Amino acid sequence: MMVLVALLLAAVNLRLAVTSIGPVLTEIREGLGMSSTVAGILTSVPAICFASFGLISPRLARSFGAPRVILAGLATLTIGLAVRPYVPGTALFLLLSVVALAGIAVVNVLLPMVVKEHFPTQVGTVTGFYTVALNVGATVAAATTVPLTASFGDDWRLGLACWALVAVLAIPAWLPLSRPAHTPNPEVNGADFVRMSRHPVAWALAIYFGMQSTSAYVIIGWLPQIYRDAGISAEQAGLLFATTSFLGVPLGLGLSWLAGRMRSQSMIALILGLFGIAGYGGLWWDPAAAPWLWAILLGVVNTAFPLVLTMIGLRGSNPARVVRLSAFAQGVGYLVAIPGPILIGALHDGTDGWRAPLGLMVLLMLPQIAAGMAAGRDRQV
Known about the structure:
The protein is mostly helical and about 375 residues long. The chain folds into two domains: about 1-180, Growth Hormone, Chain: A (Up-down Bundle), CATH 1.20.1250; about 195-375, MFS general substrate transporter like domains (Growth Hormone, Chain: A, Up-down Bundle). Helix content is about 80%, strand content about 0%. The protein starts with a helix and ends in a 6-residue tail after the last helix.
C-alpha cells in the first residue's frame, strides 16, 4: 500500500509544470517581457526535456536505485517550480523550467519500473491508477492556476509557485523506499544487457508512443481553436475540450485494467486508432456538424497513453528491462512528437484552414495503428 501511495503522489506531479503555464502565459509574457518566439520555445521545452533527460534515467537507476532517483527528481521538480516564477528575465525562466522538467523526466521513465517490480501481476491496473492520478493533476493545475492567481491579488508568480507544495507532499512517501542499500543489478550491468535500439519491440513502442503523443499535443494545442474557427463559441469549445480531456480518466483506468489481462493488446491499439480516424475525419468533414461526437471519439483515442505505458510494463521481462524499455520508448517517442504540433500550425497558416492539418492527422493514425499492433504482440524484451 505504501508503494502505491508513493506512486500516485509522484504521478500527480508529472504534468503540473506544463499545464500550469498555459492559463497565465499572457501574464508571464508581460511580466518577463517574453517574445512570441521565446513563448513558442517554452511550449516545445517539455518534449525536448522528456526525451533527453529520460534517456539517462536507466543509468541513474542502475547506480543509485530507482526510488532514490525518483526522490531526487521530485526534489528537483520542487526547486524548479518554487524558484522559476521569481527569476528575472526569460533566460532564467526557461532554465528553471528545464530544471523542473528534468525532474519530471526521470520520474516519467522510472515509474513503470517500480510498477513492474512491486506489482508484477497487476501491471495494467496499477498503471491505470497512476495515469488517472497524472491526468487529475494536469487537469487541476490547468483549471485552477487562474483562480489561484486571482486569489493572490493577480500575482501570477505566486499562482505558479504554489504548485511546488504538491511536489513537496510527494517527497515523504519516497523517503522510506529510498533508505535500503542499493546493490547494482548484475543483469543491467552484465554481458547480456539488451540494446534496446536493436529490438523491434522497443522501436514499435517508441513509434507508438511518439504517434500518440503527437495526437495528444495536437488536441491540447489546437482542438479549441478548430472548434472556434468553425463558429462554435469560446465557452462551448472549452467544454468540448474538457470533455475530451476528462474522458481519459475513467476510460484510461478501465483500458489499462483490460490490457493488463490480455496476452496481446494489438486489437485494442487497432480499435483506438479507428476511433482516432473517425474523430479527426469528423473534424475534417465539419467540426460543427457533430462537435460532441468528435470530442468523445478523440477522448477515446487519447487513452492510447495509458495503453502504451501498460505495454511498456508488460513487454519488459523484468524491472531492469522495463526501465531500459521505458527510457527508449519515451525518449525516442517524445523526439518523434516534437515536430507534429509545429507542422500542424504551419499547414494551417499555409492553407488558411484546417482541412490539410486534419487530413494529415487522419493519415498519421495509420502508422499509430501499425506500431500499436506490433507493440501489442505477446512477446517480451
